[in-house]
């Protein structure tokens, strides 16, 4: 999810611990629930993990990768569908406890913080391919939107 501000484009990242216990910053993502479309799941996951409400503007791409779930020693092939999402409202206080932290970062800072190169590539693509329609001023931002700066 992004927000255009007078000082540039900002991106929401979430933090959680990886298998080694290290804090890592990623884009919000999650799984499908019964009866959901990919788009409905994406909007729900962003709301749950960040407390923010989003609107899908475009599809960014699909990333697939393999990982081993250590407790069960099972290898999984995962597909993650990413969307360019604009901010509709919300507040970080509304998020669930799945993510350890959530923050807004200027897009260049977000690119350096992202733990996964494939996510950074998608964010870079969103910056390059999706020019903002206009820069938001502080009066354009809904009153209930979290503005947390790093």
TrEMBL record:
InterPro entries: Nudix_hydrolase, NUDIX_hydrolase-like_dom_sf, NUDIX_hydrolase_CS, NUDIX_hydrolase_dom. Residues 129-150 are annotated as: Disordered. Residues 1-127 form the Nudix hydrolase domain. It comes from the Bacteria. Pfam families: NUDIX. GO terms for molecular function: hydrolase activity. Keywords: Hydrolase. Belongs to the Nudix hydrolase family. This is MutT/nudix family protein. It comes from Euzebya pacifica.
């Amino acid at each position: 999810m992004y927000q255009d501000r007078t000082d540039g484009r900002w991106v929401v990242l979430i933090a959680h611990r990886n298998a080694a216990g290290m804090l890592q910053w990623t884009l919000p993502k999650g799984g499908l629930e019964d009866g959901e479309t990919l788009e409905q799941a994406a909007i729900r996951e962003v709301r749950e993990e960040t407390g923010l409400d989003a609107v899908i503007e475009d599809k960014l791409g699909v990333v697939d990768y393999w990982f081993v779930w250590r407790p069960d020693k099972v290898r999984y092939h995962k597909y993650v569908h990413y969307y360019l999402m604009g901010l509709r409202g919300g507040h970080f206080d509304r998020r669930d406890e799945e993510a350890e932290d959530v923050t807004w970062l200027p897009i260049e800072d977000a690119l350096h913080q992202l733990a996964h190169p494939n996510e950074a590539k998608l964010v870079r693509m969103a910056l390059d391919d999706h020019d903002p329609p206009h820069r938001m001023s502080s009066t354009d931002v809904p009153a209930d939107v979290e503005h947390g700066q790093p």
